[in-house]
Design brief:
The chain is mostly beta strands. It contains 2 helices and 32 strands.
């Protein structure tokens, strides 16, 4: 009977701890990325009573329960209103650093930016990844070490001068030789981002033969006349077709060079290349018995535009959207894969830190190396279930009451024994 007090008290202590854990789970019902906790109980060493070893065994109670966050459970992915919000589907963690420079991990993806453009968690930790753009490829370089992600704030996208032209058009094989020319407009951009309207004029000169001349408004060229088209020097020639309406000259691999010199806005001279063939070697210019018309034109230049907004894209890409509708990848969120995440220690502010038993994190791109995927504009909800937690709460409450009854009974028996001695 002497051990009944300590046994019951150990149960009261462990049940009290379990109720605290359930209360903490319920308190974090709405915490993004929070994982419900599982309680693991274990008994204490037993004592053997009597002559035979193990014939009668009496335990010394229960140890303090071990808590394990259930990272294998996936929280519901909920669409949010935050442009920079991100949710992890599957395994892995976001990598963050706090104000002290310590590396931490989190599943909570409700991100924001500070005034300097640093991507941060809602609690002020810096989200880690890559934001250095390779000047050659224009893509984010993810081969280097991770660091704070800095997104552009209130910046302009530099203009891109046009260098390549293409057009899909048909010239009417039934047109009369020397008749009214067919004109095709095309907009290009110089090194300052100013737009210039080129015109390519076609004139049938013989059967299966057309001439072309590229012009630009005279006001755009030094020495030109306002209101009069200016013929660009060297930007003229002849197109010839075979009896099936296929282009034969210029030949494949001989793009048409167009130079635009002396722009009045002070931009650099433009050097344009017009390739009348596509990537498969098929001509984009035909001569069939249909009205002369163009179906598509394109060029690779763009004007200077303002940043409109920055948001989280698929797989953790940070996308900058500009006023012309174009999107540019300016950052990439990193993810960490941890082989035994149940050994992580909660550090507050939705953060987790490594313990002495935690395996080394493997940091890399989402959807690689066993890491999950990232969904932009979403948040992972807590995995806490109200019904499951309330069921546990009832069980622990009943267990606490039962062990309190053991203490009461042991006290009564002790009092009875003392009374017998006094008689």
């Amino acid at each position: 009977m002497s051990t009944s007090f300590s046994t019951a008290l150990s149960a009261l202590s462990s049940d009290s701890t379990a109720i605290d854990v359930v209360g903490n789970d319920l308190a974090n019902l709405n915490t993004p990325g929070y994982k419900a906790t599982e309680l693991c109980f274990s008994d204490l060493v037993t004592q053997s009573l009597g002559a035979g070893l193990g014939v009668t065994q009496v335990g010394f109670g229960v140890a303090q329960p071990i808590t394990e966050a259930q990272y294998s459970q996936q929280g519901a992915i909920q669409t949010s209103g935050g442009l920079l919000d991100a949710a992890i589907q599957g395994n892995g963690f976001f990598v963050v650093t706090n104000s002290a420079g310590n590396t931490l991990f989190t599943r909570a993806g409700n991100f924001k930016t500070d005034k300097a453009g640093n991507l941060m968690t809602s609690t002020g930790d810096y989200v880690q990844g890559w934001s250095t753009v390779d000047n050659t490829t224009g893509l984010v370089n993810t081969n280097g070490p991770i660091s704070n992600i800095v997104v552009p704030v209130g910046t302009l996208k530099a203009p891109v001068a046009s260098t390549i032209l293409s057009a899909n058009l048909n010239l009417n094989s039934s047109a009369t030789v020397g008749a009214t020319a067919f004109e095709m407009p095309l907009t290009v951009y110089d090194s300052l981002g100013d737009a210039h309207s080129l015109s390519i004029n076609f004139q049938k000169t013989a059967s299966n033969s057309w001439t072309y001349q590229v012009t630009i408004p005279g006001a755009d060229i030094t020495g030109g006349t306002t209101g009069t088209a200016y013929d660009l020097s060297g930007a003229s020639g002849t197109l010839t077709f075979d009896s099936n309406g296929n282009l034969t000259s210029p030949a494949l691999g001989s793009p048409i060079a167009i130079t635009v010199p002396g722009l009045t806005d002070g931009a650099s001279d433009m050097s344009l290349s017009w390739n009348p063939y596509d990537s498969t070697g098929s001509s984009t210019i035909t001569q069939f018995a249909q009205a002369s018309a163009y179906s598509a034109t394109s060029q690779n230049g763009s004007p200077s535009v303002q940043l409109e907004q920055v948001g989280m894209g698929a797989e953790g890409e940070i996308l900058a959207q500009f006023t012309d509708g174009t999107q540019v990848v300016v950052g990439q969120v990193a993810m960490a894969s941890i082989r035994n995440p149940d050994t992580l220690i909660a550090a507050g502010n939705n953060d987790l830190q490594l313990s002495s038993m935690t395996a080394n994190p493997a940091i890399g791109m989402p959807n690689t190396g066993g890491r999950g995927t990232i969904q932009g504009g979403s948040i992972e909800a807590s995995t806490v279930s109200i019904s499951a937690e309330f069921m546990q709460l009832i069980v622990f409450q009943q267990a606490y009451a039962a062990n309190a009854r053991v203490v009461t009974t042991a006290t009564t028996l002790s009092d009875d024994t003392i009374a017998l001695i006094r008689q």
